[in-house]
Amino acid sequence: MNQVFEFIINSRKSFIQLIDGLTIEQLNKIPDGYNNNIIWNFGHIVVSTQTLCYVRTGILQDASTVKFNEFYKKDTRPTYTVTEREVAELRTIAMDSIKKIEEDYTNGIFANITPFPTATYGVELKSIEAVLTTTVGHDNLHFGYALALKKGI
């Protein structure tokens, strides 16, 4: 699992590099033909990994402790202009939350999870290892969306 965590961290570092190279206006821009923007895609991976690992697995009862969840969860769209401060917070949470998940994994917090089907594909995730592997694909899917969005801004 060390390699999986390392891959997630490195992928997020790449996403952060993309964000750091753009203005706040570019991050918030929704190009014609799209329904979201670069910062929404980044915020979405930040909240989704936390909710998948802690809420969907039954470790936490709800997502109330996942900051920004209401703005970036599945089936949401940008509804306001994100500030530089929020971008900085998302950047920090992106890395800190993965470190916390890795720590909790090492400490056995995820030893007994409640299996759940993914909302998108209906595939049942029966272990935290499966959840984290899915996270790798999900993070990179949204990184790809962000790269496509960058071409339209």
Report what the structure shows.
With 153 residues, the chain is an all-alpha fold. The chain is built from six helices and two strands. The protein has a two-stranded antiparallel ribbon with strand order 1-2. Helix 1 packs antiparallel against helix 5, helix 3 runs parallel beside helix 5 and helix 3 packs antiparallel against helix 6. The radius of gyration is 15 Å and the shape is globular. The N and C termini lie far apart (37 Å). The mean pLDDT is 97.
Radius of gyration: 15 Å
Strand order of the largest sheet: 1-2
Please report the distance between the alpha carbons of the first and last residues: 37 Å
Mean pLDDT: 97
- Report the β-strand fraction as a percent range: under 5%
Tally of DSSP β-strands: 2
Silhouette? globular
Derived structural class: mainly alpha
Give a short account of the largest sheet.
2 strands, antiparallel
**Spans of at least 5 consecutive residues with low confidence:** none
Q: Which oligomeric form is depicted?
A: single chain
SSE ordering = HHHHHEEH
Helix content: 55-70%
**How many helical stretches?**
6
